[in-house]
């Protein structure tokens, strides 16, 4: 095999190695999460409790809940994701695994993407699956519930990706949870606005394709840029540790 041929095969083998590393890290995070079920269940229980208690604390009227239901569910989902972000890199940081990930030959942003994907499967996806039941509780109609699930399916990965940046920046700091909230919540506002706006438009019978396209653009932008920003933030946090 000539040197040119070997050079041509090198990017292929490196990409295969990166895919295997991402898969291994993804599966490892899933297994680790199921060993610590309390961290896994806390965001889901919080999501259910907020949506359940809101009508009791504000108003149980059907007309009010139909109007505010999408906002209640979206705010509860946002806070549930925010609640789980502190554990995204924390355990790996505490046991030294994160330093080993930084030293791996695979690009760090791909490993971060694998961890964020595992976080979404454990946190965001269950919220999407619970949304229809809680949507019925707040008296949303069938079309609005379907659009709500679609917006959560698109929007919750964006929440995880953006949240990973804040989790990486506040890694190892005291009062990291408070700082994480201050950093991330302003960045969540556009997703929240378009998520609730899409469901409201569906409830009024208006077309939602424009809203869905904008939320899809948010997702593409987050997948493209957030892993690089999170990887850079991790290197900064580890260098300052």
TrEMBL record:
Keyword Nucleus in annotation? no
Q: Extract one GO cellular component term from the record.
A: plasma membrane
Alphabetical GO biological process terms: cytochrome c biosynthetic process; cytochrome complex assembly
Q: Tell me which Pfam families the record gives.
A: CcmB
Organism superkingdom: Bacteria
Its membrane topology is listed as: Multi-pass membrane protein
Write the record's keywords in alphabetical order, separated by commas.
Answer: Cell inner membrane, Cell membrane, Cytochrome c-type biogenesis, Membrane, Transmembrane, Transmembrane helix, Transport
Q: Which molecular function terms from Gene Ontology are attached?
A: heme transmembrane transporter activity
Ranges annotated as spanning the membrane:
40-59, 71-89, 109-133, 145-171, 178-202, 208-234
Compartment(s) of residence? Cell inner membrane
Describe its function.
Required for the export of heme to the periplasm for the biogenesis of c-type cytochromes.
- Family membership noted in the UniProt record: Belongs to the CcmB/CycW/HelB family.
The protein's name in its UniProt record: Heme exporter protein B
Organism annotation: Marinobacter lipolyticus SM19
């Amino acid at each position: 095999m000539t040197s040119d041929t070997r050079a041509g095969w090198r990017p292929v083998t490196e990409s295969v190695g990166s895919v295997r590393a991402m898969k291994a890290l993804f599966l490892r995070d899933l297994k680790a999460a199921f060993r610590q079920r309390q961290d896994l269940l806390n965001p889901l229980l919080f999501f259910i409790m907020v949506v359940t208690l809101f009508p009791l604390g504000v108003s149980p009227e059907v007309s009010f809940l139909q109007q505010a239901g999408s906002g209640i569910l979206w705010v509860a989902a946002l806070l549930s994701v925010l609640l789980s972000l502190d554990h995204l890199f924390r355990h790996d940081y505490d046991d030294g695994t994160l330093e080993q990930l930084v030293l791996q030959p695979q690009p760090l942003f791909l490993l971060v993407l694998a961890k964020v994907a595992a976080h979404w499967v454990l946190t965001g996806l269950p919220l999407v699956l619970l949304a229809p039941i809680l949507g019925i509780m707040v008296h949303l109609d069938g079309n609005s519930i379907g659009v709500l699930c679609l917006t959560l399916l698109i929007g919750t990965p964006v929440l995880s990706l953006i949240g990973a940046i804040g989790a990486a920046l506040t890694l190892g700091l005291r009062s990291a949870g408070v700082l994480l909230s201050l950093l991330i919540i302003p960045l969540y506002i556009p997703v929240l606005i378009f998520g609730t706006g899409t469901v409201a438009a569906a409830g009024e019978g208006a077309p939602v394709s424009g809203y869905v396209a904008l939320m899809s653009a948010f997702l593409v932008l987050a997948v493209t840029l957030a892993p690089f920003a999170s990887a850079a933030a991790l290197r900064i946090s580890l260098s300052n540790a």
